[in-house]
Amino acid sequence: MAEYKNVEELTYKEASTELELIIRSLESGDMELEESLESYTRGVELLKSLRARLAGAEQKVSVLLKDIDGNDELIAGSPADDSDALNL
Asked: Out of 2, 21, 47, 69, which residue is the most buried by the measure of CB atoms under 10 Å away?
C-alpha cells in the first residue's frame, strides 16, 4: 500500500499532476487489481478536491468582478476541455 500525502495538503498543481499519473497508470493496465482499486480511490479523492478548489476559485472571481454600481458582472467564459476527464 502506497503512502500518500493528505489530499488537502497538496497544492493544486501537485494534486492535478498526481491525478494525471494515476490515470496513466490505470490506462496502462499493468497494475494488479488491488493496486488499481487503491489508485482509483485516490484518483476520486483528488478529483473531488480539485473540483472543489475550482468552484471556490470561480466564486472568488465572481466576487471580484463587480461593476461600478456594485452589481455582479459575471463574464461568461468557455467551458474547460474535459475530453480526458474521469467518468465517475
From this structure: 47
